[in-house]
Amino acid sequence: MKIIYLSILVFIHVICFSQNKQILYNFTSIPQSLLVNPGADVSYKYYFGVPLLSGISAKVSSNSFSAYDLFADNGVDFNDKVRNIINKSSNKDKVYANQQLELFSGGFRVGGEESTSYFSFGVYQEFDFLMYVPKDPAILALDGNRDYIGKSFNLGDINLRAEVLSVLHIGFHKKLNEKFVFGGRVKLYSSGANATSTKNSGFIFTANGTADTNIYNQVISSDLELRTSGIAAFTRDEYDGSIPEDIIHNTFFNGSLGLGIDAGFTYYFQKNFQFTASIIDLGFIRQSKDIETYTYKGRYEYNGVNPNFGSVNEPENVFDDFAKAIPRDTLHNKYTTWRPVKFNASIQYSFGESRFDDGECSCKTPSKRLYVNAIGAQLFAMTMPKSPFVAFTAFYQRRVFRKLEIKTTYTVDSFSYKNIGLGLSGTLGKFNMYVLADNILEYKDVSKANSLAFQFGMNYIFDDSE
């Protein structure tokens, strides 16, 4: 069971995703760029996404190891691979996951042909997962405490949250003048399932008795809590439904509800020099459906021969004393969870006035002047229980044709220092398709990659013609 438990943790660590969408950010020929900055400078007459295919994103990342470290056919025992991975990991390493699937989306201008006001709307499904590597509990589960006499194992390393939800959003976007564009979005969250355990503390400590090395002094101090919503029904003996189907049913506005907002803007110092910023998912969910909170709180002290809780020679009253000292309680109180807030900011300089002469209006900017090249930098930050996740990106964007653009990025974050990304967005007639990929250098051998990402979507875009 020890190896199975740890293998599950490691597997989850390998398949993590990330919410930083640095290639999509300010790539304004793509309508979905409004999801990461509702104040992006876009000027569509109207658009709509292809249902279920307008926005699909996924990313795979790992702080401290790759799939190759765990599954390579190199003669190393699997248990030793797991042990090596745990030993080289830190309790600051993160298991972080995000996945999004856009069900439908659209937007349209309001107020006539000269208006610069737009509404956008849509629904998307999202999965969030964050876990800090529980290094001390993992070592204790893997090796026991025999070789760690005198060490205090920190139970505060247990820190995780997970959620499946759907989001209905309505946004407004307006260009006030040639220098300033702003936008905002209201979101209705529906949480189908949530698990949160981020406020844990305690320790497990074992020491030899002063007179006899076969006598042990053991102290367990526990303040552990796991809050769940929308999950408890699946653990009951009488449950005979389909978990995936029931989670989907609960996710789409049958679960716990919450509210959130996005806001952003674009400011032009000059026509070819801009600054943008956005804040995304400033909101909360009131967890109120199928609530169960499990707590293990108390302190247990044992002095004597190392206890064996097996069925043979079970120490008298030891297990009962432990259960009384640190009882498991189940509560049914509603609770509030806050969405992980994302912050983006970028600066961009454009140069090389285009020589396209087909007379069509660009979907990227309402200005008649188009630029072939753009360079810039972007900062991304996201709230986490211990410390914010931060990433820095430098980018270059090139307009190959009037409606075909590429964007390359170089990103530095805690997952990788060699993350090169590539994005392509093209529009043929009214049909727009985009493909964005992170860490393209890692595709030569994905088993050794510490980070991989992919985004894809299709839309129909209708512009004004000049």
Describe this structure as you would to a colleague.
This protein has helices spanning 2-14, 67-71, 78-88, 135-143, 243-251, 318-325, and strands at 46-49, 56-61, 94-110, 117-132, 152-154, 159-175, 180-197, 201-208, 215-229, 256-270, 273-287, 291-305, 328-331, 335-338, 342-353, 371-382, 389-401, 404-412, 419-428, 431-438, 451-462. The protein has 466 residues and is mainly beta. The protein is elongated. The N and C termini lie far apart (68 Å). The model is unreliable at 1-18 and 358-367 (pLDDT under 50).
What's a quick, concise take on this entry?
The chain is built from six helices and 21 strands. The protein is mostly beta strands and 466 residues long.
Topology:
Layout: H1 2-14, E1 46-49, E2 56-61, H2 67-71, H3 78-88, E3 94-110, E4 117-132, H4 135-143, E5 152-154, E6 159-175, E7 180-197, E8 201-208, E9 215-229, H5 243-251, E10 256-270, E11 273-287, E12 291-305, H6 318-325, E13 328-331, E14 335-338, E15 342-353, E16 371-382, E17 389-401, E18 404-412, E19 419-428, E20 431-438, E21 451-462
Antiparallel strand pairs: 1-3, 1-21, 2-3, 2-21, 3-4, 4-6, 5-8, 6-7, 7-9, 7-10, 8-9, 9-12, 10-11, 11-14, 11-15, 12-13, 15-16, 16-17, 17-18, 18-19, 19-20, 20-21
